[in-house]
User: What shape does this take?
Amino acid sequence: MLRDMLEGRGRIWWAAVVIFMFLLPFILPRFYLYLLSIILLTGLLATSLNLVLGYGGIFQFHHAVFYGAGAYGTALILTKTGLSPWISFIVGPLVSAALGLIMGWICIRLSKLYFAMLQISLGSLVWIIVYRWYSFTGGDDGIHGIPLPDILSSSNNAYYFTLVVTLICLFAMYKVIKSPFGSALQGIRDNPVRCEMIGINVKRHQLLALIIAGFFAGVAGSLFVVVDNTVFPDMLFWTLSLEICIMCLLGGWFTFLGPMLGAAIIIALRTFVSTYTTYWALVLGILMALVIFFLPNGVLGYIEEKIKKGFIEPVIKE
Amino acid sequence: MLEVKSLSKSFDGFKAVNNANLDVRKGEIVAVIGPNGAGKTTLFNLITGILKPDSGTVHFRGENITGLPSYEICRKRISRSFQVVNIFPRLTVFENVQVSILSREKRTWNLFTPSSKLAVEETNRILESVGLVQKKDRTTALLSHGDRKVLEIAMALGGDPEFLILDEPTAGMAPEETVRCIDLVKHLSEKLGLTILFCEHDMEIVFGIADRIMVMVRGATVVQGSCDEVRCNEAVQDAYLGGSDVCLM
Assistant: This one.
């Protein structure tokens, strides 16, 4: 009963947050809208990683490669073909999903750290191809001044587009996590041997999860093209992958919105702390150490734990 | 129903299972006994596809299932529980059993229907039958050891098995939990008509519920027969009592 009420009240809160976010362009200056767009799309990227990392227990340590593939897929269609720009926003994520299928099919034979090492190696291979192939990808210069449809050229509209697409993607991923596939995925995370013994084909389920995660990372990449009008090889570099992993851990990798919160914290830190010091990564390092010691389930994980203790347990005791 | 012939498995030259033979008829409760390290769990792992045998065959209802992956063996309605508790610690009791049912119904590829609306009735019925329905919303990490072992059996039941393999179902249980667990096994055999293969160190339990017993020593089958045949078998006495003439139990 109480839980239902909480869920009901929760829905009103979420509706209020979404309405507030739609009103932000009337309040915030352009720079903050840009920053918020970057937080949203990076949060989407981190959430897509968390689908396989936090919910699937798959050590996908080089997730940025799918983000970059989505961005390059969109950018290359926009710059090198006469196709409708809207097609590019579909092609980008599909390229990432296809890459997810190929890399997943190769890596899924291994597990845990061996999976991670192979995945990092293959991801780095994709990065070096993008980095060196000047005639096609622009090499280390990347691609700049990507032409966008007029409707997306203003920062307000780019923000709205990012917000709407991110919300749709988050909703879709939430549905996936709550679906029977999501339950099976969480079972695989907890105990793959047991999953096999209740009739689940573990590898195939993991592969589908990798394709889905790749697709949504690709959507985030396409959104970056909309927000920033540019792509560059660092979008596929492993250091960004590490940063996304940190976002998941910091926000709470067993919570759905934890990675979004982690992305907000890290991007805000990077933006504001770096105006005072070039050693912002030092602040991040200290913060991470504190989180690992005191909040092993991340910031949102800690908050959820407190809410459960405060509201749910007294009901159980009654 | 299940026929194991000349099954062998070695690890780095050590013969964990060496020419094991076993047959289980429909509706029977068959116990596998043997000293520690006799190869009982390895035998179960070979039957259920967790390990692939070096040689020998496993037939279930006349079909050769040797070396099939676990998920395919499970789909032939063979379920098992493990010696060391093997559940999903971050999921609730309800979800643990529900996943098992959803898997059997091949619904785990469904990406859009909320799980919370599926297989609810059957999950509740299974939890009711094993006495865990009161604890269904608890995360399994919060359960007692005995409840976790029972949950394992409930998860196995989610696969709607005809053949149930229980690897030391009462290991580590308190005496009252053991009684509950044995009653449950009897119930599964008598009321649901399941064929059960189990291994257990407690001879009182083995001789109390088994129809037939297979004795393993150093990976090999020493004897398989009725309780009386096994009780005074010379080779069994030798393995358990160092050659004494005293019968087991």
Q: What stands out?
A: Confidence is low (pLDDT under 50) at residues 1-6 of chain A.
